[in-house]
Design a protein that fits this description.
The complex is a heterodimer.
Chain A lengths: L16 E12 L5 E12 L3 E5 L6 H8 L7 E10 L8 E2 L5 H7 L4 E4 L3 H4 L6 H12 L5 H14 L16 H12 L6 E5 L7 H18 L2 E6 L2 H7 L2 E6 L2 E7 H6 L4 H8 L54 E2 H18 L16 E2 L27 H4 L6 E2 L10
Parallel strand pairs in A: 3-8, 3-9, 6-7, 7-8
Antiparallel strand pairs in A: 1-2, 1-4, 4-5, 9-10, 10-12, 11-13
Helix pairs in contact in A: 4-5, 5-6, 6-7
Chain B lengths: L3 E10 L7 E11 L4 E6 L5 H8 L7 E6 L2 E2 L4 H10 E4 L13 H11 L7 H11 L5 H5 L8 H13 L5 E5 L7 H18 L2 E6 L2 H7 L2 E6 L2 E7 H6 L4 H9 L13 H10 L3 H4 L27 E3 L6 E3 L5 H4 L7
Parallel strand pairs in B: 3-8, 3-9, 6-7, 7-8
Antiparallel strand pairs in B: 1-2, 1-4, 4-5, 9-10, 10-12, 11-12
The chains are: A alpha/beta, B alpha/beta.
């Protein structure tokens, strides 16, 4: 198995991208290898929160581990490239090509990680002070012990924990406080990227909310980018700028989060959203997603979601869907977003980096044949974004209704 | 009439040092056939302790439990009869099934223990498996737990709870360990069984959204006390106790509806008193209202223990002084 480097010129990331991954494919070895991540490409923009959602086993954590080069055998990345574009304007760093020493310097300094279970990621037998010091000793050996303590204390204070706790041990902290410590540690070296793998899943809702607010505040203050992994789609819609929905190791939808919250384009995204009942919405019959995800050891023909998809039609069984723009983009999304774009650039210009590139209609991609004009000229049903048919429920199911415009560059109807 | 009535249930846990820890403090509630009561609250609030006390896995320090109007037995045959009627579904389907035994064994045991005729055992096991949609039943009965997915295991756990033909099922976070896509199916299954068999269901959860959609009534628990109770929609759409407001305001989806602001007071208070936010949210007042330290509306009277007061909607009460007309004037509105 060889590591193929895809053509750099065609896949060159846009400006303001801090991490770019191309065609990442990861296998868990064995007699019949499990292909957990299939041909995933993504760009993480400077200062943004990029969400990754999907059910268990869809490859979201494996992808995060691949990006940070934390994969351990039997997992191997059999294809793809990951490049880091530092703030200092130096050449992109080929993360997969780093030798052991440079990798050790790179990790935590540029990319750090917050794990799901703070319980397990903190060492129960050493004090917090010791654990913070470890980071600085390894990465900033010239720091004096007083400086290390000073920095550790200010990190704890930053995440809302009494600096006196530095002398304490992890078991003296509640779950939420431990997760805050985990975040403080991830920020210790002022990284440009923080990968968060289900950082709040094990926490109570109020604590979860506090921590999400904390993360968001710190991001505004320090300007790092976040890859946020979770199975909780409604929560992700709230906190991320753009999000990726994964199914069976592949990206099935990539879109500005705000829009996905209003109407997803992929049937799986819709099903995932329906799996989380709305706290304040109308009482209605609730359904999960029937069936199980495909066996990733098998070769998957056509669309991987087809067996569970209520909208599956002819080509889904044979043709593998590629990421394409949605059939049509509701016009209110483009206009509403244009107004907020100026606000967010202004607000973010105070960051240490260049302003964040605001998500636009062009960012929306969906891997579903319902949106392919040549396969489905009628467009998707009304409950999915991009529908042009004004179905019976189109205006009642969504408060705003659908005003439709064609995506740029396509022959269109509506607007 | 209620199937199960819990009166003034109190559970204390001994601590190595100091006084006993009161995990559940004089909690009363009733369960009705064909209805679901949701018990929500954060971890450590005492939800599971209530389930354990009601299923007689632990002995309460005081209070009584009435099954069909009669005091629950505490030993011997009457305890067995009580336990038959009150069955439990646990949170972790990976830990609650024995990895060494087949699915069939897990279902046969409770049937045998409660005297099901030996010759019908296999038929009864198949019937149970079918009722939780584990088909084909003969094949499923022969499987070992590790051959099943989390959702399938939880179905086995539910079938096992149904085996002794209980009147009451206590479901302690039955879906929190399961994947999002299958949670609703398991909850729908429990809901369907509740209707079919006229069961009384106690649904313990920290997820307000499913609590609202799957239950008739909701009780909100904070540090061992029920702070608010009422019809599910009333409690969620019109949260009255400041803690419930905080909970509802923290849930995803609350932002769009403008609920979000209710978390702000806690942060403001943290800034004012210069305590680290995380430390503040851990603070519990020992006397009076336990939420006092975190409450944006705290008044002098809150040093005294609040009683249940009506908040307006029928049957909707909150343990908060704000709903006492004497004190309501001071804080014009809580909503």
């Amino acid at each position: 198995m060889t590591l193929t480097r895809p053509n750099e010129t065609s896949n060159k990331p846009a400006n303001g991208v801090v991490l770019s991954a191309r065609n990442v494919t990861v296998e868990y070895g064995g007699e019949r290898p499990t292909r957990a991540v299939r041909n995933v490409s993504l760009d993480l923009r400077r200062g943004e929160v990029l969400g990754i959602a999907g059910e268990s086993g869809c490859g979201k954590s494996t992808l995060a581990f691949a990006l940070t080069r934390l994969l351990r055998p039997p997992a191997t990345m059999i294809q793809g490239s990951v490049f880091f574009h530092g703030l200092d304007g130096s050449d992109p760093v080929d993360i997969l090509g780093l030798d052991a020493v440079s990798l050790r310097h790179f990790r935590w300094d540029k990319i750090s990680m917050v794990f799901q279970s703070a319980m397990n990621s903190l060492n129960p037998v050493t004090s917090l002070r010791r654990q913070f010091s470890d980071i600085f000793e390894a990465h900033v050996p010239e720091m004096s012990s007083d400086e290390r303590d000073e920095r550790s204390r200010s990190l704890l204070e930053m995440v809302g924990i009494d600096p006196k706790r530095l002398k304490g041990y992890p078991h003296e902290l509640s779950g939420g406080m431990r997760q805050r410590v985990g975040i403080a540690m991830a920020l210790a070296l002022n990284p440009e990227i923080v990968v968060m793998d289900e950082p709040t899943t094990a926490l109570d809702v109020v604590v979860q909310r506090d921590i999400l607010d904390e993360i968001n505040g710190l991001r505004k203050e320090l300007g790092f980018s976040i890859i946020f992994i979770t199975h909780d789609l409604p929560m992700l819609v709230e906190i991320s700028d753009r999000l990726i929905v994964m199914y069976a190791g592949e990206i099935v939808e990539r879109a500005p989060s705000e829009w996905v919250g209003q109407s997803p384009a992929h049937p799986y995204t819709l099903a995932l959203q329906d799996s989380c009942p709305d706290l304040l919405g109308e009482r209605k019959e609730l359904r999960g997603i029937a069936g199980v995800p495909p066996d990733l050891r098998e070769r998957i023909e056509g669309c991987s979601f087809r067996p569970r998809c209520p909208y599956a039609f002819g080509p889904c069984a044979t043709v593998h869907p590629e990421l394409i723009p949605p059939f049509a983009v509701p016009v209110e999304f483009t206009t509403v977003r244009d107004m907020s774009a100026t606000v967010s650039v202004e607000e973010k210009s105070s960051l240490r980096q260049s302003p964040v590139i605001t998500p636009t209609a062009g960012d929306w991609r969906v891997a579903c044949h319902l949106h392919a004009r040549e396969l489905n000229p009628e467009g998707p049903p009304h409950e999915l974004a991009g529908a042009t048919r004004s179905g019976s429920g189109a205006t009642t199911s969504q408060e705003s209704g659908y005003n439709l415009a064609s995506p740029p560059g396509s022959a269109g109807e509506g607007q | 009439m209620s199937v199960l009535e819990v009166r003034q249930l109190t559970v204390d846990f001994a601590q190595r040092r100091g006084p006993k820890f009161r995990a559940v403090d004089e909690v009363s509630f009733e369960l009705y056939a064909g209805e679901t009561l949701a018990l929500v609250g954060e971890s450590g609030s005492g939800k599971s302790t209530i389930a354990r006390a009601v299923s007689s896995l632990i002995r309460p320090s005081s209070g009584e439990i009435l099954l069909n109007g009669k005091r629950a037995g505490t030993r011997g045959r009457r305890l067995r009869e009580y336990r038959r009627a009150v069955q439990m579904v646990f949170q972790d389907p990976f830990a609650s099934l024995n990895p060494a035994f087949s699915v069939g064994h897990h279902l046969r045991r409770p049937l045998q223990i409660y005297g099901h005729p030996r010759e019908d055992l296999d038929i009864a096991v198949e019937g149970l498996l079918e009722s939780v949609s584990l088909v084909p039943p003969t094949l499923m009965a022969s499987k070992l737990p590790h051959e099943l997915s989390g959702g399938q295991r939880q179905r086995v756990a539910i079938a096992r709870a149904l085996a002794p033909q209980p009147q009451i099922i206590l479901a302690d976070e039955p879906v929190s360990m399961l994947d999002v896509s299958i949670r609703l199916e398991i909850l729908n299954l429990l809901d369907g069984l509740k209707r079919e068999r006229d069961l009384a269901l106690l649904y313990i959860t920290h997820d307000l959204a499913t609590a609202r959609h799957f239950s008739t009534h909701i009780m909100v628990m904070y540090r061992g006390e029920i702070v608010e109770r009422g019809l599910a929609d009333d409690v969620i759409l019109n949260p009255s106790h400041p803690y419930t407001q905080l909970l509802a305001g923290s849930a995803a989806g609350a932002i769009r509806s403008g609920r979000r602001q209710v978390t702000a007071p806690v942060e403001r208070q943290a800034k004012k008193s210069n305590i680290a936010l995380a430390e503040l949210s851990e603070t519990v007042s020992a006397t009076g209202c336990r939420f006092r330290a975190r409450c944006p509306h705290a008044m002098e009277i809150c040093a005294e223990r609040p009683v249940e007061l009506s908040v307006g909607d029928p049957g909707h009460t909150a343990k908060c002084w704000l709903f006492d007309p004497k004190f309501r004037a001071k804080s014009t509105t809580t909503r």
